[in-house]
Amino acid sequence: MKTFTNKKLLVVASIFATTVSVQAQYLRTSYFMEGASTRVQMNPGLQPTRGYLNLPLIGNFNVSANTNSLGINDFIDITKDGNDFLSNNTLYNSLQQDNRLNMNLNANLLSFGWYKGKNFWSFNAGLRMDIGAQINKDMFTMMRNMNGFDIESVAGSKQSYKMGNQSINMNAYAEVGLGLSRRITEKLTVGARAKVLLGLARTEVNIEQFDLDLDIPEIPNTSNMTQEEMKNYEFSEQDWYGKGYSYNAKANVVTTLKGGGMTFDDNNMINGFDLDASSFGIAGAGFGVDLGASYSIFSNLTVSAAILDLGVMKWNKSNTTIAKVEGEENVIINENNYEQYIGGDLLSLDRFDFKKEEEADYKSSTKLASTILLAAEYGLMNNKLSVGAIYSSRFVQPKTQTELTFLATLRPSNIFNAAVSYSPILSGGKSFGLALKLGPIFAGTDYMYFGGNSKTINAFIGFSLPLGAKRKPFAEL
Questions:
Q1: Domains held by the chain: number
Q2: Alpha carbons 43 and 26: distance in angstroms, whole number
Q3: Which has the minimum average pLDDT: 4-18, 46-60, 276-290?
Q4: How many CB atoms lie under 10 A from the CB of residue 469?
Q5: Hey, which residues does 98 pair with through a beta bridge?
Q6: pLDDT at residue number 36
Q7: What are phi and psi of 143, to 5 degrees?
Q8: Angle between helices 7-16 and 72-81 (to 10 degrees)
Q9: Domain range spanning residue 320?
C-alpha cells in the first residue's frame, strides 16, 4: 500500500487537508439555540430546553476545513484538473509562502442527556480526527519546474529551493464523555465534562530544513520551436542525465498505529506504508476535560465562557515507528538514479533517504487542541429572539485559529429554532452561517457558500429525539 508515494493523494492532502484542523469542532451558529443539543458540546455550562437522544451515526456529524491561501473555487479547480493543477498559474499565484490548512471531523456514535432536579447529565461517544499542515510554496515551485511548466525562464540554470518549516500532523481517536451541569442559582449555571480518549492513529511529518539545489536542463532545438512550444516543453528522462541534484535536509516522520505504520527495506530505509486491518486497534489512551459556565447579569443579558479539550493523549511506543534524515547528498542524475530523484512520485519519502530510528527520542504524549470560548447574548421578545457574539480561539497546529461570530437566534419553541451568523475572520468576510432545528432534524453551517472563494467551510447535520421532561423554572426546583 503506497500511501506515502501517491503523488496526487499527497498533493491534494497537502493543499486541502492543511486547510484541516477545521476552525471549530462544533457549530457556533447553534450556540444560543436552546432547543438544540449541540450547545452542550460547546459549553458544558449550558443547558438545552429538554433532554435529548442523538441516534447512532446520524445523531451528529460535523466536518470543517480552513486554509489561509486557497478557497473553495480553487479546490473545485484542483479536483477538475487532477495532476494538471500544477500548470494552473491562477492557483499557483494564490499560494502564500507558508500555506496552512486545518481539517476536523467529529462523528457521533451515541449521545444523550437528561434532567435530574437542578442537574443536567449528558453522555457522548464518538470519533474525532484533527489534521493540520503547513506547506512551503517553494515545494510547488520545485514540482512545477521538474514537470516542465513555465520552464523557459529557468531552463539551463541552477535553481535553489528553501523548503524548510513544513509539517503535517494528524490525530484520530475515540472519545467517551460524561458531563454534568448544575444550576447553582437562578442566574448561575456551571458544568464540566470528563472524557476518556482512545488513540487510533497518529502521523507527524516535521521538515525543519530541506534545501535543494537542482540543475534544470536546457530546452533543445529552441530555434525550431514556437514560444508556446517552449513554454509547454516536457523534459524527457535523457534531458536530466548529467544534471546535478543536491540537498541538505533535517526532518523526521512519526507514525503510531496498531496493525500498521511505515515499512523499511533491508537497509532500514523507508519504502512505504502498510496497514493490516485485522490487527487495527487502540494505539494510545488519554484523558480530557471541558469546563463551562453561564451567568445572567440581567434578566435579558447573559454571558458565558468555556474551555474545551484540556487534556493529553499518550501513545504506545510499541505501536510507533520513527524515521529521520539529517545530512546532505550530492549526486549526478543518470539512468540508475533517475527514478529515485527525478522520476516517479515527486513527494515520495523514500526519495530523501529517511532511515528507521530505533533509539530516537520518543515523544509519547501529545496535547489536545484546546479551545477558549467567550460569549454574550441579549434576549428580546420575552427571550424568544436574541442577538449575541462569540469569541473563539482554538490552539491547533501549525497556528492558533481565532474567530469572532455575530448571531441572531429565533427560538419560539423547542420544536423550532433558527439562527443566522456572520464570522468574518477566517472566511475573509465572504460567507454567512445558518442553522435550523425543525422537530428532530437539525442542520447548519457557520460558513455558507454563496459563490465567493471562501477559505473556510463547515457543515453539521444531526437527528435528535426528545428525552425526559423539559427544563423547569429555577423557582420550582
A1: 1
A2: 10
A3: 4-18
A4: 11
A5: 136
A6: 87
A7: -65, -40
A8: 170
A9: 7-179+200-282+312-366+379-476
C-alpha distance across the termini of the chain, in Å:
60
Instruction: Please report which confidence band the pLDDT of residue 371 belongs to, taking 50, 70 and 90 as the band edges.
Output: very high
pLDDT value, residue 402: 92
Is residue 195 assigned to a domain?
no
The answer to whether residue 188 is domain-embedded is no
CB 420 within 8 A of CB 408: yes
| CA dist., res. 388 & res. 262, Å (int) | 49
* pTM passes above 0.85: no
320 pLDDT higher than 70 = yes
Higher pLDDT, 145 or 149: 145
Dump pLDDT digits (tens) for 146-176: 776 667 778 888 999 898 889 988 999 999 9
Say whether 39 sits in a helix, a strand or coil: helix
CA 102 to chain centre: 3
As a three-state string, the secondary structure of the chain is CCCCCCHHHHHHHHHHHHHCCCCCCCCHHHCCCCCCCHHHHHCCCCCCCEEEEECCCCCEEEEEEEECCCCHHHHHHHHHHHHHHHHCHHHHHHCCCEEEEEEEEEEEEEEEEEEECCEEEEEEEEEEEEEEEEEEHHHHHHHHHHHCCCHHHCCCCEEEEECCCEEEEEEEEEEEEEEEEEECCCCEEEEEEEEEEEEEEEEEEEEEEEEEEEECCCCCCHHHCCHHHHHCCCCCHHHHCCCEEEEEEEEEEEEEECCEEEEECCCCEEEEEEECHHHCCCCEEEEEEEEEEEEEEECCEEEEEEEEEEEEEEECHHHEEEEEEEEEEEEECCCCCHHHHCCCCCCCHHHHCCEECCCCCCCCEEECCCEEEEEEEEEECCCCEEEEEEEEEECCCCCCEEEEEEEEEECCCCCEEEEEEECCCCCCCCCEEEEEEECCEEEEEEEECCCCCCCEEEEEEEEEEEEEEECCCHHHC
Query: What's the average model confidence in pLDDT over 296-305?
Result: 94
pLDDT at 12 over 60: no
The answer to whether 23 and 456 are in contact (CB under 8 A) is yes
Q: Are 1 and 272 in contact (CB under 8 A)?
A: yes
Q: Is residue 299 part of a domain?
A: no
**Is 296 part of a structural domain of the chain?**
no
CB 449 within 8 A of CB 431: yes
Distance (Å, whole) CA 448 – CA 427: 10
The C-alpha cell at 112 is 444523550
Selection from 287, 372, 294 nearest residue 44 by Cα = 294
| pLDDT of res. 18 | 33
Three-class secondary structure of residue 232 per DSSP: coil
Mean pLDDT of 204-215: 91
